[in-house]
Design a protein that fits this description.
Length: 454
């Protein structure tokens, strides 16, 4: 007899993941792949939307026609700051522009001349991040690629495009809109005035709750298909549906994002300058969040150390916490020259590190240099957690994602945050399970259920 399953595509910047969950949210199957990238119309690296679409369709076809599984539900979790622009026939008309693509300085200056930066950042609860402000991507298309822009009929956030592939329904939802887009005015709970002034609002379809579903016929069956969700917000939703006590979530991976849905403090300019911002929950409520490009920073240093010390790329996984190093931390005698190389976030970096004297080749071994790298990353993570925590008295901290498997990182984090109760293994598949839980509410206990939406 075929097993009833919920299918989730969890699309990260590096890994594209597919999961099958049972009715009680247990992982039944997973598939992780890395798809080759392509380049956009300016020659900048980006994800290949055609290749991704082909893999997703092929994967679902395999499940739909399988005798082993009965596909009942399908949903999507993806990284943010990414848009898919469709023409009047519903076909993509641009590449999947990379949020790391440089934003033209002169265009940014023009934008902030029209919409003063400090006030704009505060109202939209988002720092100035260039292409990471996905609303500015649309502004850039309008100003720099007008012929291409004129072909755009609809603009979908990435998760909603993947849902659209199966439902053909054009929608927007809160978590993607609120993800440092500069589109949303948190003081009015509506699109910011600049979106209307630039006549961009008409590109974005109606806003529906993240819990909205459509019933799609597939192989003579009706499959419940969700509208998709931003990945960090999905991880947060999974925890919010599982616990009643206040907590802070650190969702780690390429980005480490600390999320605090239990604060009502307004953001300050100082916090915004350190990449602290607001997200929206699945119910459209503000979440105080702080971001670090931590996984990207770690990857940079691992490549550097592996080359210097002639080690295999995954050698760092064998490194155990050094007792003498930890003792130096406890006694306050630690001296490190670590300095971030790719992180950005200049204000936060200058708060923590003085001068760039980092020389990894000066250490006696890979292990010694690696300890200093992780020490530096933990300093950044602690500062980021404290930004999101603000003045709240929350002392429960959950960590999700890739960094939970880094023993040294967890040991040092506990050492520097003794006032917190740190849980690191409750839900290692947070973003995928969150996306599953949101469309599986009819099979969840009452305390897991969420409101109808915003």
């Amino acid at each position: 007899m075929a097993i009833p399953v919920t299918a989730i595509f969890d699309i990260g910047k590096t890994n594209k993941k597919f999961f099958l969950f049972t009715e009680d949210l247990q992982e039944l199957y997973h598939d992780y792949i890395k798809l080759p990238t392509t380049t956009d119309d300016d020659g900048f690296e980006c994800d290949d939307l055609d290749a991704l679409t082909h893999w997703i369709r092929e994967t679902i076809d395999r499940i739909i026609f399988s005798e082993q599984y009965h596909l009942k539900r399908l949903n999507f979790s993806t990284y943010g700051a990414t848009l898919v622009h469709l023409d009047e026939t519903g076909k993509p008309v641009t590449p999947l522009y990379n949020y790391l693509k440089p934003f033209p300085p002169e265009l940014l200056e023009e934008f902030y001349t029209r919409y003063p930066q400090d006030a704009h950042n505060l109202y939209t609860a988002s720092p100035s991040l260039g292409m990471l402000n996905s609303g500015l991507q649309v502004y850039w298309l309008k100003k720099n690629k007008p012929e291409l822009f004129r072909k755009i009929k609809y603009t979908l956030h990435f998760p909603q495009y993947l849902s659209y592939l199966f439902t053909q329904q054009l929608v927007s939802e809160p978590t993607s809109i609120g993800c440092h887009t500069k589109l949303w005015d948190y003081t009015r709970n509506d699109y910011h005035a600049w979106v209307r002034e630039e006549k961009l609002e008409q590109l974005f379809p109606e806003i529906v709750p993240a819990s909205k579903v459509f019933y799609v016929p597939m192989n003579e069956r009706s499959v419940v298909v969700g509208v998709g969700i931003h990945d960090s917000s999905s991880a947060l939703a999974a925890y919010m549906m599982r616990t009643d006590e206040p907590f802070i979530l650190v969702s780690t991976g390429t980005w480490s994002i600390t999320l605090n849905p239990f604060t009502t403090e307004s953001l300050t300019c100082e916090e915004l300058d350190r990449d602290c911002l607001n997200f929206l929950t699945i119910a459209g409520k503000p979440v105080k969040a702080s971001r670090l490009f931590l996984g990207h920073e770690l990857d940079h240093h691992l490549r550097q150390l592996s080359e210097l010390y002639q080690k295999e790329p995954r050698y760092y996984k064998q490194v155990k916490p050094d007792v003498a190093f930890i003792e130096k931390i406890k006694t306050g005698t630690i001296e490190s020259t670590f300095y971030p190389a790719t992180l950005g976030n200049d204000k936060l970096v200058s708060d923590l590190f003085t001068t760039n004297r980092w020389q990894p080749e000066a250490f006696a071994s890979f292990e010694e240099a690696y300890h200093h790298v992780i020490w530096g990353l933990v300093q950044l993570q602690v500062a980021s957690i404290k930004l999101a925590a603000g003045k709240s008295a929350i002392r429960k901290l959950y960590m999700d994602g890739g960094f939970i498997d880094n023993e040294l990182f967890i040991v040092l984090l506990r050492l520097y945050l003794p006032e917190y109760i740190l849980g690191v293994s409750d839900m290692p598949l947070g973003s995928a399970q969150g996306a599953a839980m949101i469309i599986q509410q009819d099979h969840l206990p009452t305390r897991f259920k969420i409101a109808a939406g915003c």
